[in-house]
C-alpha cells in the first residue's frame, strides 16, 4: 500500500510539472523551479509515509492504561540486567588491565611466563563471561541477549597461532553450563599461576596484589567445591539464580585485582626495569673484571710454567692454573647470567631446578673470588720458589694473608647474611644473631667457670673440715650442737656431699612449687631453704603469671569486620517465563473482598507486660491464646478475647527465651532457651525442663502429635518427647541449621542454614559470605532429596497447611520468598517405580514498595494460607497475596509508633482478621478488623469503613468516587473498576 501511494505521488508530481503553462519561463530558471518542486513533492511523500508507519505501529501496540508503572517482573528484569551489565563491565576492566600489563611486561626480562599466564587468564575470563551471559539471558530474556554461538570467545595468541597445524583440533569455544565448577577451579589455578609468575620479579613485591589474588583463589576453590553438589541442576532456575548472585562477590574481587594491577603497572614495572638494568650492569662489570684478571693470570703463568723441579714450583703452577680456570669461568658465567636475565622466552623461576638458578645467579662471583684467592696463594709461593729476598717474601706473605683473610671474612659475612635472612624470615639480622650467639657462649663459659669454682671451693672446704675433725672432734661437736646450723659430717667422698646438697635444693623447690604462699610449711621440712631461694621462686612464679596473662590477652578472638555485600535476592524471585502483565480477570474473586477488609486493620489494644524486647510470639491453633517470649526472661500467655487479658506468666530463672511453639491441640507450649527446652501447659504449669548439651536454635512440633517434637541443634535434628527422651536423630551433614519445618504428612524435614565448610573442607575468605542452602530431608529413607543454594542469610522456614508452599524468610533487607514443593518420580530408585522425590521451585519474591529492613520470620495468613505478611523494623507491615505476589495492603510506619521485632497471624480467626506485633520496648500490639458482613456489597462496605483505596505504587490516596445509582450489581462493578485501576 505504501509503494502504491508513493507511485501515485510521484505520478502526480510529474503530471503537475508537465502541465505547466507555456508562458512559464524556460531555460535555467525553469530547471531550478522544476527541481524545487520535485524536492518539495518528495518531502511530502516521505512525511506521509512516516505518518502512516507510525499509525500502523500504534495499531499494534497494547492499549495504554492509566497507571503505567512497571510490574514486579519488569522490575526484576531491569535490576537483573543492571547487575549483569555491571559485572560485565568489571570483567572488561580486568581484561583491559591484563592487556595493559602484558604490554608493559614486554619491556622486562623473562616476561614470557607472565605473558603466557596473563593470556590464559584472559581466556578464562572470556569463558566465564560467556557462561554468566548465558545464565543471565535465561533469567532475564527481555533485557539480556545471548552471545552468538559462531562468534569466537577470544583470539588465539600470536605464538600459539603460528605453531598450530591444520591437523590439531580447535578447542571447544563455548563451554557448557554444567562446567561452572570446573571453570571456577580452572580460574583459581590460572590466578595462582599468574601470581607465581608475578612474584618471579624479586625486585618488586606488591603485598596488595598477593593478598587480593590469594583471597580470590580461596573463594574460587570454595565456590567450585560447593557447586559440585549441584551437578545436573545448572539449568534449574534456583541454581541459575544463585550463580547470578555470585557475580556481586566475584565482581568485588575483580575490582580489587584491577586496582592493584593498575598500581603495579604504574609503580612496579618501572622499579623492576630499573633493578634489572642495574643487575645487568653488575654482571657486565663482573665479566669485564674476570676477563681482565684472566689476562693477568695468563701473563704471570709465563714466568712459572717452566719451573717444574720442586714442590714449591709445582704448587705455584697449580694455583695459577686454577686461578686462570676460575677467572675464565667467572667471565663466561657472567655473560650467561646476563643473557638469562635479559631473555624473554625462558621458563619462570618456579619451573627451573634449584641448582640451575644457583649456578646462574651465584657462580660468577664465587668463581671470581676463588680465582683471586688462588692467584694470591700462588704469588706468595712464587716468591719462595724463585728464592726472592727475605724482606720480599715476608712482605708478600703478610699482605697475602691479610687480603685473603679479609676476602674470606667478607665472603663468609655475605653467605651468613643470606642464611640468617632465610632462616629467620628477615626478623633478625646477622649482627643480632652474632650478638646472641656470643652472649650465649659467654654465659655458658661463665656458668661453667662458676660451677668449677664452686665445686673447687666445696671440695677445699670439705677437705679442710675433715682435717679439723680429725684433730679437734670434740670441739666441732659442741659448736654444732650449740648453733644447730652445721650438718652432721659424714665421712665419704666429696661428691656424695655435693649430690646430697643438690637433693636438698630440689626438695625445697618442689615444696615451694606445691605451696608457694606458705612459708611456714617450708620451715617444717627437713631442710630449711634460704631467703635467696624463696625470693628466686617468687620471681619465677611472677614471671610465669605475667606470661600466662599475656598469652590469654593475645589469644582473644577478634571480631571479623563486616563488609557490606551487595544484596541481590531482593531483586529476584519471579520465573523468567512469567508474564509481565496480570490478567484483569484475576482480580475478580476473593481479592476484591480482601483489599477493603485488610484496609480496616487497625491497632485495637496495647499489651505492656514485658520490660525488654519481644523476641517471638505465636497464636495457639485454637485461637484462644497468644504466647509471647521476651528478653526479660519471661513468657506470657494472653487470653484472646474482645479485650486481651493475662492468662499466665511463665518466669524463667536463667537464659533468654528465643521461641514459643504451641502444639496442635493448644494444650502444651514449648519455650526455647539457649541450651534447654521447657514444656508448659496452657495454664502455665511447667511439666518438664529439658536440658540439652548443645545450643538449641529451633523447636518444632510433629504434625498431629502431642508428645513429640524436634529440637534443632547444630547440624542435627533430634526427635524428643515431652519427657526429654531422645527418640531419633537426623544428621544434615555440614549444614549449620537455623530452623526446620515439617511437612503435614510428617515424612520430610525442610531445613535452612549456612554450610560449615565446603565438601573439600575449604572455607571462604573473610570478605565473602558462606554458602546457604535449603534442604529437603526424607526421614523414612534418611536421604537428601533436594538441596537448593541461596545467596542471602536465611532466617526461618514455614510450610503451608497443605504442604505445597514453603515460605523462606531472610535477614535484613532481603524480602521473603515463596517456593513450591513438587513431588516427582524418583528415577534413581529402580526397585520402587512409585517412589517420589521432592523438588523445590521458586515461585515468587514478595517485593516491597521501598527498601525495608525486615524483622522476624514471615508468616502465612488468611483462609487456606492465602496471604503472606511480614513486618519491617520501622513499624511497617506488608501483606501480599500468596499466589500472585501482589501487595494487597501496606501499613505505613506513621500509623505505628515503634520499632517492630516480630509479627504473628491468628489462623483461627478468619472473620475478623487478627494479628499481633512485638516491639523493642516490650509492648505487644493487637490488630483487628471489624466484623465483615458478607451480604453487603463492596461499595457499601467502603462507605461504612470510611476508607479510600490507596494505590500501591503512589503514596497519595485516590479519592473515592460518589456512589453510582442503580442496582447493587452496578455498584459492585464500579468498586471493582476502582480496584482494577488501582492494583492491576
From TrEMBL:
The keyword Glycosyltransferase appears for this protein: no
Biological process terms in GO annotation: proteasome-mediated ubiquitin-dependent protein catabolic process
GO CC annotation terms, alphabetical: GID complex
Entry-linked InterPro entries: WD40/YVTN_repeat-like_dom_sf, WD40_repeat_dom_sf, WD40_rpt, WD_repeat-ST_regulator
Transmembrane segments: 283-303, 318-338, 365-384, 390-415, 445-465
Region described as Disordered: spans on this chain: 952-971
Swiss-Prot/TrEMBL WD repeat ranges: 607-648
Keyword annotations: Membrane, Repeat, Transmembrane, Transmembrane helix, WD repeat
Keyword Transmembrane helix: yes
PANTHER family per UniProt: WD REPEAT PROTEIN 26-RELATED, WD REPEAT-CONTAINING PROTEIN 26
Protein name: WD40-repeat-containing domain protein
Organism: Suillus placidus
Taxonomic path: Eukaryota, Fungi, Dikarya, Basidiomycota, Agaricomycotina
Amino acid at each position: 500500500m505504501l509503494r502504491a501511494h508513493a507511485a501515485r505521488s510521484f505520478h502526480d508530481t510529474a503530471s503537475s510539472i508537465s502541465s505547466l503553462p507555456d508562458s512559464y519561463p524556460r531555460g535555467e530558471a525553469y530547471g531550478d523551479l522544476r527541481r524545487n518542486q520535485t524536492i518539495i513533492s518528495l518531502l511530502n511523500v516521505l512525511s506521509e509515509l512516516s505518518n502512516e508507519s507510525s499509525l500502523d505501529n500504534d495499531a499494534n501496540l497494547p492499549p495504554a492504561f492509566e497507571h503505567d508503572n512497571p510490574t514486579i517482573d519488569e522490575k526484576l528484569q531491569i535490576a537483573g540486567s543492571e547487575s549483569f551489565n555491571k559485572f560485565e563491565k568489571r570483567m572488561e576492566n580486568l581484561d583491559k588491565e591484563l592487556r595493559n600489563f602484558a604490554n608493559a611486561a614486554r619491556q622486562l626480562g623473562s616476561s614470557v611466563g607472565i605473558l603466557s599466564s596473563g593470556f590464559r587468564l584472559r581466556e578464562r575470563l572470556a569463558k566465564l563471561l560467556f557462561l554468566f551471559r548465558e545464565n543471565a539471558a535465561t533469567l532475564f530474556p527481555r533485557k539480556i541477549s545471548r552471545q552468538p554461538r559462531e562468534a569466537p570467545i577470544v583470539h588465539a595468541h600470536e605464538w600459539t597461532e603460528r605453531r598450530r597445524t591444520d591437523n590439531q583440533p580447535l578447542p571447544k569455544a563455548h563451554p557448557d553450563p554444567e562446567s561452572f565448577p570446573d571453570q571456577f577451579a580452572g580460574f583459581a589455578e590460572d590466578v595462582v599461576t599468574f601470581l607465581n609468575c608475578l612474584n618471579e620479579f624479586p625486585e618488586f613485591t606488591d603485598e596488595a596484589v598477593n593478598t587480593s589474588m590469594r583471597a580470590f583463589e580461596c573463594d574460587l576453590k570454595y565456590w567450585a567445591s560447593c557447586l559440585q553438589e549441584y551437578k545436573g541442576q545448572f539449568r534449574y532456575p534456583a541454581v541459575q539464580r544463585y550463580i547470578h548472585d555470585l557475580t556481586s562477590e566475584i565482581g568485588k574481587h575483580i575490582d580489587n585485582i584491577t586496582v592493584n594491577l593498575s598500581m603495579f603497572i604504574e609503580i612496579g614495572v618501572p622499579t623492576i626495569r630499573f633493578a634489572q638494568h642495574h643487575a645487568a650492569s653488575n654482571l657486565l662489570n663482573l665479566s669485564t673484571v674476570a676477563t681482565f684478571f684472566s689476562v693477568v693470570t695468563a701473563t704471570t703463568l709465563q714466568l712459572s710454567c717452566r719451573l717444574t723441579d720442586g714442590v714449591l714450583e709445582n704448587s705455584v703452577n697449580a694455583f695459577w692454573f686454577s686461578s686462570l680456570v676460575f677467572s675464565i669461568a667467572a667471565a663466561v658465567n657472567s655473560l650467561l647470567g646476563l643473557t638469562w636475565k635479559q631473555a624473554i622466552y625462558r621458563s619462570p623461576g618456579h619451573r627451573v631446578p634449584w641448582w640451575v638458578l644457583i649456578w646462574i645467579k651465584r657462580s660468577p662471583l664465587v668463581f671470581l673470588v676463588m680465582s683471586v684467592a688462588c692467584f694470591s696463594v700462588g704469588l706468595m709461593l712464587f716468591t719462595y720458589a724463585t728464592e726472592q729476598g727475605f724482606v720480599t717474601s715476608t712482605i708478600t706473605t703478610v699482605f697475602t694473608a691479610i687480603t685473603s683473610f679479609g676476602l674470606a671474612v667478607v665472603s663468609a659475612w655475605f653467605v651468613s647474611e643470606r642464611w640468617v635472612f632465610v632462616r629467620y624470615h628477615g626478623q633478625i639480622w646477622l649482627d643480632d644473631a652474632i650478638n646472641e650467639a656470643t652472649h650465649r657462649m659467654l654465659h655458658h663459659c661463665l656458668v661453667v667457670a662458676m660451677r668449677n669454682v664452686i665445686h673447687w671451693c666445696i671440695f677445699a672446704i670439705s677437705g679442710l673440715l675433715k682435717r679439723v675433725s680429725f684433730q679437734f672432734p670434740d670441739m666441732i661437736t659442741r659448736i654444732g650442737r650449740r648453733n644447730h646450723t652445721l650438718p652432721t659430717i659424714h665421712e665419704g667422698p666429696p661428691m656424695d656431699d655435693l649430690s646430697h646438697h643438690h637433693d636438698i635444693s630440689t626438695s625445697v623447690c618442689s615444696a615451694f612449687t606445691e605451696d608457694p604462699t606458705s612459708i611456714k610449711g617450708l620451715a617444717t621440712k627437713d631442710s630449711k631453704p634460704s631467703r635467696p631461694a624463696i625470693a628466686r621462686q617468687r620471681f619465677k612464679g611472677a614471671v610465669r603469671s605475667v606470661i600466662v596473662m599475656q598469652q590469654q590477652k593475645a589469644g582473644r578472638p577478634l571480631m571479623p569486620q563486616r563488609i557490606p555485600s551487595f544484596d541481590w535476592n531482593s531483586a529476584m524471585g519471579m520465573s523468567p517465563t512469567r508474564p509481565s502483565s496480570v490478567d484483569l480477570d484475576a482480580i475478580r474473586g476473593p481479592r476484591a473482598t480482601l483489599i477493603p477488609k485488610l484496609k480496616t486493620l487497625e491497632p485495637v489494644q496495647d499489651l505492656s507486660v514485658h520490660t525488654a524486647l519481644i523476641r517471638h510470639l505465636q497464636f495457639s491453633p485454637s485461637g484462644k491464646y497468644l504466647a509471647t517470649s521476651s528478653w526479660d526472661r519471661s513468657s506470657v500467655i494472653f487470653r484472646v478475647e474482645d479485650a486481651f487479658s493475662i492468662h499466665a506468666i511463665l518466669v524463667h530463672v536463667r537464659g533468654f527465651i528465643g521461641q514459643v511453639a504451641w502444639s496442635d491441640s493448644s494444650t502444651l507450649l514449648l519455650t526455647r532457651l539457649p541450651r534447654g527446652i521447657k514444656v508448659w501447659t496452657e495454664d502455665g504449669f511447667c511439666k518438664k525442663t529439658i536440658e540439652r548439651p548443645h545450643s538449641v536454635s529451633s523447636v518444632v512440633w510433629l504434625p498431629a502429635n502431642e508428645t513429640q517434637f524436634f529440637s534443632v541443634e547444630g547440624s542435627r535434628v533430634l526427635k524428643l518427647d515431652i519427657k526429654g527422651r531422645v527418640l531419633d536423630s537426623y544428621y544434615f551433614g555440614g549444614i549449620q541449621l537455623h530452623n526446620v519445618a515439617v511437612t503435614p504428612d510428617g515424612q520430610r524435614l525442610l531445613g535452612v542454614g549456612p554450610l560449615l565448610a565446603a565438601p573439600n573442607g575449604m572455607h571462604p575468605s573473610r570478605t565473602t559470605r558462606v554458602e546457604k542452602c535449603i534442604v529437603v530431608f526424607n526421614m523414612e529413607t534418611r536421604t537428601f532429596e533436594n538441596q537448593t543454594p541461596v545467596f542471602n542469610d536465611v532466617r526461618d522456614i514455614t510450610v503451608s497447611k497443605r504442604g505445597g508452599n514453603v515460605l523462606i524468610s531472610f535477614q535484613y533487607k532481603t524480602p521473603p520468598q515463596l517456593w513450591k514443593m513438587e513431588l516427582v518420580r524418583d528415577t534413581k530408585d529402580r526397585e520402587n517405580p512409585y517412589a517420589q522425590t521432592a523438588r523445590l521451585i521458586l515461585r515468587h519474591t514478595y517485593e516491597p514498595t521501598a527498601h525495608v529492613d525486615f524483622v522476624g520470620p514471615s508468616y502465612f495468613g488468611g483462609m487456606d494460607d492465602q496471604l503472606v505478611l511480614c513486618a519491617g523494623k520501622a513499624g511497617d507491615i506488608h501483606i501480599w497475596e500468596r499466589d500472585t505476589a501482589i501487595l494487597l495492603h501496606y501499613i505505613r510506619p506513621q500509623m505505628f509508633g515503634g520499632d517492630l521485632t516480630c509479627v504473628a497471624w491468628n489462623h483461627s480467626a478468619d472473620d475478623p482478621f487478627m494479628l499481633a506485633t512485638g516491639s523493642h520496648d516490650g509492648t505487644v500490639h493487637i490488630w483487628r478488623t471489624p466484623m465483615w458482613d458478607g451480604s453487603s456489597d463492596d461499595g457499601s462496605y467502603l462507605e461504612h469503613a470510611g476508607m479510600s483505596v490507596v494505590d500501591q505504587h503512589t503514596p497519595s490516596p485516590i479519592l473515592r468516587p460518589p456512589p453510582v445509582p442503580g442496582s447493587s450489581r452496578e455498584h459492585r462493578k464500579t468498586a471493582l473498576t476502582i480496584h482494577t485501576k488501582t492494583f492491576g
